[in-house]
Amino acid sequence: MAIAERDATGRAGAAGASGADGRAGRTGRGTRLKRLRRDWVLLALMAPGVAYFLVFHYGALAGNVIAFKDYVPFDGLWASQWVGLDNFRTMFGDPDFWSAVLNTVWIALLQLVFFFPVPIALAMLLHSLTRDSVRRFVQSVAYLPHFLSWVIVVAVFQQVLGETGLLNNVLGDAHLHTVNIIGNPTAFKPLVIAEVIWKDCGWGTIIFLAALTQVDEQQYEAAAIDGAGPWRRFWHITLPSVRPIIVLLLIMRLGDILSVGFEQMLLQRASVGADAAEVIDTFVYYKGLVGGDYGYAAAAGLFKGVVGAALVFAANKIAHRLGEQGVYR
Amino acid sequence: MSSATQSLRRGRPARRRGPVRPAWVEQPKAATTVAKAIALAAVVLLVTVPFLIIVSTSFASNAEVVANGGWVLWPQHPTLRAYRELFAGGIVTHALWVSAGVTVIGTAASLACTIGLAYALSRRDVFGGKPILLLILFTFLFPPGMIPGFLLIKGLHLLDSYGALVAPVLINVFNLIVLRGFFQSVPEELYEAARLDGAGEWLILRRIVLPLSKAALAVVGLFYAVSYWNAWFYASIYLDSGHWPLQQVLRTYVVGGSQLADSAAGDAGAVAAPQTIQMAVLVVATVPILLVYPFLQKYFTKGVLTGAIKS
Questions:
Q1: Do B100 and B75 share a structural domain?
Q2: pLDDT attached to residue B166
Q3: Of A49, A68, A174, B140, which has the maximum CB count within 10 A?
Q4: What is the pLDDT of residue A191?
Q5: Shared domain check, B196 and B66
Q6: pLDDT tens, B262-275?
Q7: How many angstroms away from the CA of A300 is the closest CA of chain B?
Q8: Confidence label for A76 from pLDDT (cuts 50, 70 and 90)
């Protein structure tokens, strides 16, 4: 009896080993109970993490039912009245909501056109440098702003471009016209793009640089010997080498088109007003957390989540149609 | 003969000191080189100059700031007055302690939970591994949303507690995937050898897997630390102003433009120009990032890349 049991646990251990290295065959896989007993240390190790996801993601996800309720804080989440799709009906008839959607998509598209190519260009510039020390120095400096908070980034931009900021000081000293950039709704969208470029264009190069260094140097050499100049080598070797990543990031960006830097927008909405700076996320924030209309705000948030997920699916489908890898299979 | 080689050497000194250029690469045109140099200089200056000026202004004296219209490129008589006022026990001093505490405790908690989950999920045959991984990856695609998150924290009675800054962001899926990838790359032979010696999972994790993953742990730990240090939104909705961390104080008084000089100055007597105080807060909020940045940089390319490739 004892021998038989030891034999069984021994085999279960071996099964764990062969499973862990990823081979498909899981011969001698024990029953549920045996696997449970074998893995109890691992299960204990993952318990806090799993509990976190269950409570703070799935628990919160379940809280989305308030989008279908008329939430009254005093009654609490469960006792509040069901109102069906009322919140969504109000939302679809709310011009403020559509203005927020429009702003979101508009800013996201502007970012796609004016921000997206910048890291690619910078990566190619950095990759073309033959002097390693220069490249590494520029990389270190360019990555840095990514690690600063949006509060600091917005503060820096205010101090440099604000009404009494550095730029206007310099312009004033030179007896030129001062410019009004911060707190000016018409200048807000370009400002937002500039901030994103300043903060993340360096960091964005990492993934492209990785792809560029994967290219076999011999390809360039062979092309050069066949008479291809720098431009043709760039067009036929460098660009194709980063194309899958460009497509991948484009897909992810399109799937994420309904969210544009919530913190960035929230920090500056007060200074330029809702017409210029309200995006879906700040709409949810102001309607719900500031205005107290939780059910309505949750409906807007849920709308964004569902449409966002659908967009990711759609973008991924399109990528497969185009013969690219996509985010997942 | 020897004079010929010498003249050759003299003719191309830059080539010898400079980078190794493969023979098949064309000599770059002067215009290209200049354009590249200008672009690179622009990148470097755009990042560094604002900071130089902010640091300079924070060290300048009142008279100098006023004389220069609010900005100082290089302080003639550097003074620590603004910093002395900030650290005299006002809002900023308190906020600094809050930020430091949340960063240290939050990073430790996040690392511990991420390591446990990543290690268990790195074992392919672990009980429930696949469904749990799917469950986690799904949260990436469909985040729960701001309002339900807020009501959950309220329902758990975490309002006005520092737990509200840590609990909702305890594990970052990206960091989890990076660590799991690293753990998976530990050679299987090591596990088998340890198991033959009678080591259990806990011992294997502590003695073999963690020591082998130091680089990844450093990256993930620093990512967590940076995100806790930089966070302000949860503080703004979950905590009252007496509990605020530094970034939220910075937001209110520098970005929001409220007067900090009156309320934040401790009993340091003389009040510095608000501009110098504001710049000093900005510097204090940035310096910890600058301090960990070299370590971050040393490891992150490796860590980020493995993560990117795996996911």
A1: no
A2: 95
A3: A49
A4: 95
A5: no
A6: 444 444 444 555 77
A7: 10
A8: confident
Looking at every residue in chain A, the average pLDDT score rounds to: 84
- Within a domain: residue B291? yes
Q: Does B127 sit within 8 Å of A39, measured CB to CB?
A: yes
- B74: in domain: yes
Does the residue B135 lie in any domain?
A: yes
Asked whether residue B60 falls in the same domain as residue B153, the answer is no
Confidence of residue B64 (pLDDT cuts 50, 70, 90): confident
Domain-embedded: residue B10: no
Total tally of structural domains belonging to chain B:
2
B40 close contact with A: CB closer than 8 A? yes
What is the band of A118 on the pLDDT scale with cuts at 50, 70, 90?
very high
Residue B217's domain comprises: 89-310
Q: Which residues lie across from A70 on neighbouring strands?
A: A81
Residue B199 shares a structural domain with residue B113: yes
Are the beta carbons of A148 and B168 separated by less than 8 Å?
no
Residue B245 has pLDDT above 80, yes or no: yes
pTM here?
0.84
Choice between B242 and B262, residue whose per-residue pLDDT is larger: B242
pLDDT tops 60 at residue A329:
no
Do B95 and B46 fall within a single domain?
A: no
Mean pLDDT of A24-44: 71
The rounded distance, in Å, linking the Cα atoms of A186 and A167 is 18
Nearest residue in chain B measured CA to CA from A286: B147
Residues B53 and B93 occupy one common structural domain:
no
Average pLDDT over residues A312-316: 83
Give me the pLDDT at residue B5, please.
44
Which domains does chain A show, CATH number per domain?
2-68 (no CATH), 86-321 (1.10.3720.10)
A229–chain B Cβ distance below 8 A for any pair: yes
**How close does chain B come to A22, measured CA to CA in Å?**
6
Q: Are residues B160 and B251 in the same domain?
A: yes
Same domain, B228 and B114: yes
A161 in contact with B, Cβ within 8 Å: no
Distance from A2 to chain B by nearest Cα, in Å? 19
